[in-house]
Amino acid sequence: MDTLITARGLSKRFGPTVALDHVSFALAPGRIVGLIGPNGAGKTTALKAVLGLTGFDGELSVLGLDPRTQRDRLMEQVCFIADVAVLPRWASVSQLIDFVAGVHPRFRRDRCEEFLAKSAVRREARVRQLSKGMITQLHLALVMAIDARLLVLDEPTLGLDILARKQFYDSLLNDYMDAERTIFVTTHQVEEIEHILTDLIFINQGRIVLDLPMEQVAERYAQLVTGPDQVNRARELKPLNERQLLGRSVFLYEDADAKALAPLGEVRQPSVADLFVAKLQPGGAA
Amino acid sequence: MNALARAPIFNTPFAWLIRRELWENRYLWLAPLVLVLAILAAALFGWVFFGHAALHLDGEELEHMHNMTVDQIVPFVSVGLATLALPFLAIAILGTQLFYALDTLYGDRRDRSILFYKSLPVSDTATVLSKLAVATVGVLVITFVASLLTQILIAALTSIELYRYPVLLAALWSPRVWGGVIVLMAYMVVALSLWYLPVVGVWLLISARANRAPFMWMLLLVLGLPIAEGIGLRTHHVLDLIGRRLYFVAPLDVHELGAALHRGAQGVPDAHAPVVSNVIAPAQYLANPELWIGLVAAAILIALTIWLRKSAEASS
User: Fold this and answer.
1) Single pTM value for the model
2) CATH of the domain at A248
3) Does the residue A149 lie in any domain?
4) Is A211 within the bounds of a domain?
5) CA A127 → CA A166, A207, B138, B278, distances in Å?
6) What digits encode the pLDDT tens for the residues B12-43?
7) Does the interface ipTM go beyond 0.90?
């Protein structure tokens, strides 16, 4: 399989703190990969390594290039939205469009104008005069007008209201995504993106704890909701995690026999958030 | 965009990097403009309240010069006008470079826009070199234009006082005067810029490295280091080094210039008029080893700055 990103044994330390501990993963084209982890897990460090924004030990190839030494070439085919605050606040919208058009060989001004025409962003406005939602729309318009193969998003909707967040991901899917493009995204708001993800990577304390395509998540993980009478039998099947919800017990299983679970209660596919909690807190609040 | 802006040379990525610096730092061209207007206002104020439009010209000197021919006067006026601008040029170049170069790389990290710039296919080398180009060539061109504009305005105001001296008036507005002024000022601006290059290198390095308050780092370097050396070692090598570099070194034949201006003021119509080519002393300037040591230091400082920019991340 063609890979866009191949990381082997990626490590990074900040003094005594280990940000990445021999991390390995691979991203294929046409996928939307979520990198999920708690604060300080190493998500942003991993993304910065991919973008050539930080040094690291280990092997990393992005689109066949070494981000440490070939960042400027890499950025011809990679786009990046860190969070809403990075567009220069002194610039006007039209200056930003002119500037990106001037330095980026794969930028298409007409596509950017087309996208902005659907928004309330005025060309003569300066970035500092725009709302957070408008700045995100502007940044997204600039990025979507670039014919890039990889889009890296680090908490792209941080600080946005729910409408702006939904609009952001809708635009991404409708106007940007196709079979050749890949999105690599980190966010705390897992529930907002789980329906668009094709692959899931969990990272904790600098280590990968889960790396699966979403279809395998459905095959390998099951959630059982049961009453007090079935709790002991459910525990015998060795759940990954157990918690209480409105007087009922919720168990999460890895590689469990679906036929054995079915008689014990309601079996369903766990949400990414539930799976995340189960993988990071094995055992849970029993 | 107009036709000039669409010309291929202005459409390279490097040209766009320069343009974005001029967009962001509008004071680079607004400050000299304000200075020109302030000088003009001061001259007008002097004319209205003290009866002198611009330069205070001594009546005896004027009478002396009035007895000379236009050809004899032209070189004096030319050299006089240009050298009059030298302190202005030096202060304007040093001041603008200080404020711009100290803040430019630090500012990108402070507002986190460095992440936006680094998300574009532009190398850190090109980014630093574009900032260096603005701090040197950009400041140089802007200062030159502003100085020339000031000279023209002052000459225009001085003309009001010279209405009784048609020979002097003709000499003042002779194309040869302004040709000489332009050549001499262009030479001085280029020479000063090369002399100040290591200073710009130090400011850029501080800007690339400081996590906060680059201005304080500059003060620490320029004031703290000499004071520490004076107290600790009872020597003043650092102070001498800074003094020699910051005090504008006139790339001119100072002896010839002084003598020539004196002859001009005395109205001596001899054959030793200060032609521009006599006053310009490139050999003397280029033979100064401190110029070359400075240029080598500047190259090292710029290389270090590029390296720091490559490893730089947003400060928050």
Assistant:
1) 0.83
2) 3.30.70
3) yes
4) no
5) 22, 38, 26, 54
6) 999 999 999 999 999 888 888 887 788 778 77
7) no
Among all chains, which residue has been given the structure tokens 């711009």?
Answer: B100
B19/A99 touch (CB, cutoff 8 Å), yes or no: yes
- Residues of B near A (CB-CB distance < 8 A)? 1, 11, 13, 15-17, 19-20, 23-24, 111-116, 118-124, 126, 311, 313-314
The model's pLDDT over A109-128, given as tens digits with 9 standing for 90+, comes to: 999 998 899 888 999 999 99
**pLDDT > 80? residue A58:** yes
C-alpha separations of B180 from B81, B145, B174, B251, B256 in Å: 9, 15, 10, 16, 16
| Helix spans in A55-148 (H) | 71-74, 93-103, 109-117, 132-144
B111 contact residues in A (CB cutoff 8 A): 85, 88-89
Instruction: Judge whether A78 lies within some domain.
Output: yes
**A81 and A188: one domain?**
yes
Q: Does the beta carbon of A79 lie under 8 angstroms from any beta carbon of chain B?
A: yes
Of A72, A91, A104, the CB nearest to B123: A72
Say whether residue A68 is in contact with chain B using an 8 A CB cutoff.
no
d(CA A75, CA B127): 15
A197 and A233 share a domain? no
Domain residue limits at A40: 5-205
Residues A14 and A73 in one domain: yes
